[in-house]
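Record type: ASSEMBLY
Status: queued
Input:
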Amino acid sequence: MGLQLLDWLPVLVAAGVVALAQLKVRERAQTAALFLSAGAGLEVVWSLAQRFVLRRGAVASGDELDLPLSWTLGPLMHAAAVGCVVWGLVQLADALFPRGQRGLPALLRSVPEESPNKFLLGFVGFFALAGIFSSMGRAMPVALAGGALAVVAVLVGSFFLQKHGGSVAMWVLERRPDLVVWVYVHQLKVINRQTGMTSVHWSTKLGLSNGVLVTMPGFGADQSQTFAAGVAEHCPGITVGFSPENAARFNSQPASMRGGARAP
Amino acid sequence: MFFLFSPWNVTSVLVAGVLYFVVSQRLLVAAPKAGTATKVAAGLLVLGPVADFATPFLNLYEYSQVLHALLRAGFWGCLAWAVWALLQEAPSTEVR
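Status: finished
Output:
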């Protein structure tokens, strides 16, 4: 009895997300409420379908394992449900914090947007598909196809999210510039001891009043310096430049960095 | 081996990765509690495959179903918490 009740718990919580979206979110962000409801609703409908429509449990016939449809399509449905909720969360954040009236200064607009790391997505995708293939093999082609589709859907969704969501640093500067209290250019020098080669990575760091440090990757020293100057112009009164004192102050009282002294 | 690299587990780990490295970073700047909730949700998603891996060693067969139900409920609860945290952090729209 207790186990059966616990079995229903995820369905009830997902239904709660639908209720939250309809009762609290819809009045402030309709699109976000739609995606949140669709995602959590899909989870509810799929769970109910698994219990009442689709058969449960694997059936062994000879050497082959006949997996139920619910198990085969489950990962894809889960990925779709979470994807909808995630997009709803992103839309909700955008709707609750709209773009400010004053636009970004020219210095910030001139910096190119970072693009998603396609190599990383391909790398992760290759090993994910290899893992599924090693476990499913050729004996279960339908389950293999369902799993592969789910993996591809997650990777494409991640790419879409990064591509259309834009960079976090630009989001802050456009929608919550009041949070920015500190900006500095960061240089990371990596020396390969075997080959003796040195590579330098530049980025701009934005310190927020809630203690979060946001990184804006740069394509070189000039671009990072330009971006930092643009941030200082867009958010007057913030602390500019790195020093051990500034870092200690940011760690202890980040909000006090606004109106702080400029570091050398 | 079959259950460790099952489509369910592989997809869960991938979704957890996207939640932790992409979504939570974005929500963290909007509302820190929403970012934390998303990170916890990602952690709960990863615990499913970890439980599957540990099941034969710790003889968790009897509790596996309960454990997965709790993890799934916790995951959706964390997403609800993230939505709530965003709503709380947002500026009020009431006209004064």
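Annotation: Chain B has a mean pLDDT of 88.
Annotation: The two ends of chain B are 62 Å apart (CA to CA).
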